[in-house]
Amino acid sequence: MIYDFGYDAQGVGKCARRRPVTDTIARPGKIIAIHLSYASRADQRGRRPAAPSYFFKPSSSVGVSGGTVERPAGTELLAFEGEIALVIGTPARRVALADAWTHVAWVTASNDLGLYDLRANDKGSNVRSKGGDGYTPLGPHLIDARTVDPTALRVRAWVNGELRQDDTTAGLIFPLAQLVADLSQHFTLEPGDVILTGTPAGSSVIVPGDVVEIEVDAPNASGSPTSGRLVTTVTQGHVAFDETVGSLPAVDDLQRTEAWGSAEAAGLVAVPSSRRDAPRSGTEEGRNPVPERAKRDDGPTLSPALRAKLLEAPTAGLSAQLRKRGHHSCFIDGVTANIPGSKIVGTAKTLRFVPFREDLFASHGGGYNAQKRAFDAVEEGEVIVIEARGDATTGTLGDILALRARTRGAAGVVTDGGVRDFDQVAEIGLPVFSQGAHPSVLGRRHVPWEIDVTIACGGATVQPGDIVVGDGDGVIVIPPALAEEIANAAIAQEHEDAWIATQVEAGHPVDGLFPLNAEWRARYEAETAPQNETAPQTKTGTNA
Question: Which of left, alpha, beta for 214 (phi over 0: left; psi -120 to 50: alpha)?
């Protein structure tokens, strides 16, 4: 049988037969939640507890079906957890395992919401991370515990209509009755107290606009009793935490991994190529796409000495040396600098957009998408290189992302698309090479798809770790294994060209001088011998 739940004037739990409308569930005296209880979740976390452990949630965290929950300003890792909630009907103190279930009056659905941005500082207490207003919605209806088998209950969770969790109490490490018996050893469980019994695998991050539904039922029981769907909508908060009175939200890769459910889901490790392009449903604010390949690490690093050489050598000279070695497709065409006179040297961190498609933008365009992850993860000295298919009719970054890249120490950005907030990006001081300004948002033409993969930018193939050099003549891509040789040769050629320029300025004709014939070369080597002994490399040939 199914009931709605309330309290009488003395605070004693009572029930009423289900009515056509959903009643609220009054505040319980205690809410006790278990940290880890399902085998599927334990396997996902890589740890299986020997005994249950618990934390309390404040009664002010109770919410109702159809309500909202706020993701606070400045946070990113609000996660849902579909759970079976037990409501105590009669006092339980030091009860035996065999009698424990008789003290449970009702079963219902709960969403044990948690904000992982605050989790580390809570050190397991979850006081702040799980104690927020509305972080324990319950209901909408109560199932009579006497009519169901506690080992055959089911919990399911949907996000925006997509089934995310589906497990039964057969998958529990600790049976429901054991939780009641265990807790009763330590304090009295009173009528109306709620026990949250843990969540199975599938819990993950939700974002503003997402709608989460949780249902608990007993599909094998007579009449298939159900709690109905507990519905919660995520909203965006606008009040930041006050840094003067307490610790602030903070996230790291551990919290991202546990909030999303796995390192793969958080975009922190590689996945097989067969899975990489599979879309996931979600709202426009929403889902993380399936993550990308890890960065390659098969070439030499860009040392400070090599970086200095590449800063000295012009792209025109570097490209000439690449062409002499058979590399004719090293140019990122069509891009110019937002800051005249700027130069960039760095290793490529790649980001790929695919053409806009409504369903793919819904699954990959919002939330902590590939574009945001690229700018959050760029390392000092890296250049973010964006494949936008040469489409300049929308922006591929704006001032906020440019500020993030500069703060992270990025050497610059190269995109064969457009840039929003063009003047503000230039004022930030981050060198950006692009096709120019465009006011449109990303979703007009592009879906942010993946990072740290081989891309095509401005007609050039770019791999993670390739060396990117840009100046007033444009941007080129240098294979890491050739970078030292190319830099030395380009600098040597620059010294030679400078000497040739002095001869032309002195009135000599260019015929035989540019390029140097045998006579002129002998003269050049004689006059510059001391310099050539310390030059990185003397190179014959032209710099056309």
Answer: beta
